[in-house]
Amino acid sequence: MALRELKKELNQMDKTEIIKLILEMYKKIPDAKNYLDIFTTGDIQKLTEKYKREVERYIYPNGRNMDLRETEARKIIRTVRKMNITELNVELELHYVSCCLEIIEDFGYWDENYYLAMGKMFDNALNGINEMGIQEKYLERIKNLSHKASEFGIELEY
After folding, report:
1. Is the pLDDT reported for residue 64 higher than 70?
2. 115 and 156 Cβ atoms separated by less than 8 Å
3. In the chain, what are the domain boundaries?
4. Cα 66 off chain centre by
5. Calpha distance 10→18 (Å, rounded)
6. Three-class SS of residue 158?
7. pTM reported for the whole predicted model
8. Gap between the terminal Cα atoms of the chain
């Protein structure tokens, strides 16, 4: 169903039907529940921690072959971006960069695409920070990530 059709259907429903629909979505669709929790409380901390754990699960090596699945971590972040909650995106993007730098430090991992993806994630975080105008809040964290990256010859400029 296109957005226009959905809007038309919602306009035809009365308030109690819309409330019932939203409550059903809240009960049955985890992403809708997460979004509505943030919408009603404004608190992203719990959701941030949940997604950080998911990102870590994919970034850190798995099994004897040390399989890196950071592409899965990026998929999680892309999905979260669709919620359009900039501060949540920034937190996850910076966490991704931090985890990747730990992999490089601990395992000496080197892969150009890995570095490029990490750089793009860092740039996305900076864009979100600038968009929200909260540079002061993240300045120390950004400096630390940039400094740590420079130790490995990676430029993360802010």
Report:
1. no
2. no
3. 1-42, 44-158
4. 24
5. 7
6. coil
7. 0.81
8. 42
